[in-house]
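_Per-residue structure_
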Amino acid sequence: MNFLFDNPLANLPGPAFLALYGALIASSAIVLYLFKSRLDWTSQQPAPLIPPVPDPFEIAYLRGGENEFARTVVFTLTQKGFLQITNEGKKSYIGLPPTQPNWTTLTQLERSVLKWFQTTRETSEIFEPYGLREILQPYTLIYEQKITQDHLLTPPDVKVKTRLTGYLIMALLGILGGYKILATLVHGRYNFGILILLMIGTLIVFHFLGKSKRLSERGRRYVESLQNAFEKLKDNPSIARQYYSQSLPALNTVDPLLLAMGIYGAGALVGSGYNNFEQAFHRSQKGADGTTGSSCSSGCGSSCDSWSGSSSCSSGDGGSSCSGGSSCGGGGCGGGCGGS
């Protein structure tokens, strides 16, 4: 019994033990961070080929989740003249213009969204749990099933293994810290306040490290390949159409601005005549993705997840998270950026 609380570890002076404990936390965090990527078996699979006619909405949802999908749908309706954006002070509003074009040219998705905008909405309302996101859910479910089948989202088994690994490390560090506190009490000392703070910090660190990115490694590489393949869209979508029409004739059926929005987010619209759209979503970004600025809306492989997202990012997988055209690992941005 004496050896249990009378050994080199139990007798280690407080400052030395704190240094050892801090080093173990740091090294364990690095190991888990590096180990997470090895758990993702999709990294062994090649990225999907870029389709002849990319779907901007599917790409937006993949990159940044629901938030980025919502932005893209709202943009196409704004571009077609069915919605208008009004910036008033620090707030932006989206509603129907005085004169409405003919609805018969719209898809069922676009009509559903327009009905929601019969009442003028503040931009931030788009990202609230109910409302537009609920209307979009049947459509996002279709995309969710497709990209899941293509292994573009982190597989459930990888999420479970990552989470359990994080919990295991957390438990081992907790046992070590608890043992030292007990040994300190046995020796009649009570100077373990800093150790308790370190243990609480350990819980926080490994809670977040135990989360997985929204996009799988395969999904991240696919979004990255899209952004690399269409990088000219980010500079000038209208001129880029002429460039891509020679190598990819099928893209003549896809609006270049909409495709740029899907691949890079609202940041790609700067200088295109839709600055008010980018500004409106820039203002609402903090409430939507928990970040400041237009990070996940300007291109996430994001995913903020991310590649999170939403981002985006843009997400991705939001999210987040993300700067124009760069990968994030999620919204999303954008939305991506978020783990689960």
In short: The chain has twelve helices and three strands. The first strand starts at residue 84 and ends at 88. Residues 55-146+213-340 form one domain.
